[in-house]
Design goal:
About 80% of the residues lie in helices and about 0% in strands. The radius of gyration is 16 Å and the shape is elongated. The chain contains 5 helices and no strands.
């Protein structure tokens, strides 16, 4: 009736993709990313870039799609980290 591996894969991808959204919202609202680890997100963005490349190499659109979304969301967090590092951007806007 349904494909259990596909369902589990879809659920895993949905969890992975949505896990970045609360962090993005928190940084944006507080205009402060001092609690975000820069090295972690550099490694995370690198990892999702490599997963996306891997998806293209094996021609797997589920791997490509999920990892592109995760790459974009983690790259947003990395960008916000640079923009709102230590709350400096927030202080200069006030």
């Amino acid at each position: 009736m349904f494909d259990l591996p596909a369902l589990v894969g879809f659920a895993a991808a949905l969890c992975s993709m949505s896990s970045f959204v609360p962090q993005i919202i928190k940084i944006w609202r507080e205009r402060n990313a001092s609690s975000v680890a820069l090295r972690m997100y550099v490694i995370t963005v690198t990892g999702f870039t490599l997963w996306t490349i891997y998806g293209f190499l094996i021609d797997s659109w589920p791997v490509i799609g999920a990892n592109i979304v995760c790459l974009i969301l983690s790259a947003i967090i990395l960008t916000l980290k640079w923009r709102f590092r230590d709350g400096r951007a927030a202080a200069s806007e006030a």
